[in-house]
Structure formats: C-alpha cells, structure tokens
Amino acid sequence: MAAESGKIDPMYQFEVEPLFGQGWQIAGHSIAFTNSALWMLITLVLAVLFMAGGMKRQLVPGRWQAAVEGMTGFITNMMDTNIGPAGRKYVPYVFSLFIFILFANLLGLIPVGVIPGVHPFTVTSHLTVTGVLGLLTFAIVLVVGFAKHGLHFFSLFVPHGTPVPMIPLIFVIELVSFLVRPFSLALRLFVAMTAGHVLLKVLAGFVINGLNAEALWVAPAVSLPAMILMIGISMLEILIAVIQAYVFALLASFYLNDAINLH
Amino acid sequence: MDAEAAKLLGAGLAAIGVGMAALGVGNIWGSFLSSALRNPAAADSQQGRLFIGFAVTELLGLLAFVVAMILLFVA
C-alpha cells in the first residue's frame, strides 16, 4: 500500500509488477516474470504438494489422505449428482479448476504483508486470469457438445414443449443467456475477490489513518472498531473464497451437463 | 453539474444495486433455511440449487459494484 500524504490507495494491491526479466520479449510483448506469475506458481506448487501428500494410497488413510480424499470425493459426488455416470471423464478438469481457484483465493488472504517488502497478491482478482478459466470452461462445453451431438446441440436453445410461435424468441433469449456464460463465470469470481480485498484495504486505511491522527480520541474511536470489523470481514472473506471456488466448479459442472445430456 | 461530481453521484447510486442484491441473497438463504427446518431430510439434496440461485443473484450485486468501480476509476 502506498502511503502518500496519509492517503491509502486500496487499488494498489492489484498492480501487476515485473519482478525480474524486464527485458524478455516475444513479438514486442513483455513476458517479464511478474508478481502475478509468482503467486500463480506458489498456488501451483502448494496444490501439487497438497495432492501429492495425500495420494500415497495407504490402506488406512492418515489425516492428510483423508483431507485429499474428502476434496476429491466432494467434487466427484457433485459431478455424479449433476451429470451422472458420463460426468466421470470431466472430474479431473473440474477438480483442477476447484483446487486452483480455492488455493489462489485463500493464498491472497494470507497476511504475509506483515513482513516488510512482501505483498500478497490474489491471482483470481484479475479478469485476465478468471477470464481464461471461464473461456476454457466454455470452450470445453462447446467442443464436448458439438462432438457428442453434432448440430443437434442447437436443440439446447429450444426447451421441450415450447409453443411453435414462441420458438424464434425463446431461441434468441436462450442463445444470449448461453453466450453470456463465460463472462458471468469470470466476472463473478473476479469481482467477488476484488470487492472483498478493496473492502479489507479501505478498513485497513481507517485503522492506519486513525492511529496516525493528531487528535488522541481518534485511535480508540475509529481504529479499534475498524480493526474488529476487519477481523470479522476477514473471516467472511475466507468463507467467500471457498464459496466462490465451489460455485465456479458447480456452474462448470452444470454447463458440462447441458453439453453432455442436453435438456 | 460538474462531470466529476456526477461520476461520484453515479457511483453512489450504483451502491443501491448492491443493497438490492443483498435483499435477494438474504431471501434465498432465508427461504432455504426456513424450508430446510421444516424438512431437514430433503435439505442436503437441494444444496446445488441453493448455490446456483445464490450465484445468479449475487452476480447482479457484483455488477452494480463493477458499475461503481468503472465510474470511479475508468470513466
């Protein structure tokens, strides 16, 4: 956070800065290693470590294996209830989505900012990252849908029992609601993360400015309630981080269900 | 009116949308809870629909927030 003349900028946390390799270029575009890339790498390494620790296939599962099996079982169960047996093929993709988003969301909330010079960065608070995840999901839905049903896939846009005169109207409405899916998927995660972090930093600004104020009554009257509120909001944000990861995986499974089973 | 003032007013008005989405989300969880208490055995099977409804409703509130942010920082 930049403290310029007592003003705290809540948007500074989202800035992408190159860490090294400023000179690296591909076709005129900079491909420097940024803090975003660093935190994505940390997310990946932690997720892989978490999974590897629980995949020893012991006959009597330890705590770690039980945790990993709980997560895989949770996603497999969700896919089974939403899609049915045909959904088993897509469990790895949806599980990867879930675990990446979950770890990225939670890592952004870790208070490593107390160490000077270290800034936590929420990967999922950028539309570029969530947009790629959303578009990838949408692309998989399209490929699966057209590969499985051919042009019959378009019957997705005309629900059963639609009266014939209504078909053109319903078709357009369903088509628009279908095409807007990748954006709503990406935007939901991105805005939920951004809004939560902005809120936390605005409250942090209250705490810091209150402590720096000249009048002595300001610190207990402003900083203390703001700090208590921040602790509550932080707990809420942990809940939101988990819910958003779950919602992303759930909607991905719903959209895959549309492609696999039509209506 | 000054354009800058109009932007700030618009951002403030967009916050109404966030509050409206709060009503919607509260309605969804409240009705889920009241019906889950009537029939706890059926509650677990409806959790998927609960989260779909929550996600769709919450998105509109988040869009209101996006409008506010665009007015403040982009427009």
Short key terms for the protein model shown above:
heterodimer; A: 263 residues; globular; B: 75 residues; mainly alpha; F1FO ATP Synthase
Structure report:
The complex is a heterodimer of chains A (263) and B (75). Chain A is mainly α. Chain A has a domain at 85-261. Chain A is built from 7 helices and 6 strands. Chain A has helices at residues 35-54, 63-82, 91-108, 127-149, 167-179, 181-212, 218-261; strands at 3-4, 7-8, 18-20, 25-26, 29-30, 33-34. In chain A, the strands form 3 sheets. Chain A has a two-stranded antiparallel ribbon with strand order 1-2. In chain A, strands 3-6 form a two-stranded antiparallel sheet. In chain A, strands 4-5 form a two-stranded antiparallel sheet. In chain A, helix 1 (35-54) packs across helix 2 (63-82) and helix 2 crosses helix 3. Residues 1-5 of chain A have low confidence and may be disordered. Chain B is mostly helical and 75 residues long. Chain B has a single domain, classed as F1F0 ATP synthase subunit C (F1FO ATP Synthase), CATH 1.20.20.10. In chain B, 91% of the residues lie in helices and 0% in strands. Chain B is built from 3 helices and no strands. In chain B, helix 1 (3-38) packs antiparallel against helix 3. Chain B starts with a helix and ends with a helix. The model of chain B has no long low-confidence stretch (mean pLDDT 89). The chains are: A mainly alpha (263), B mainly alpha (75).
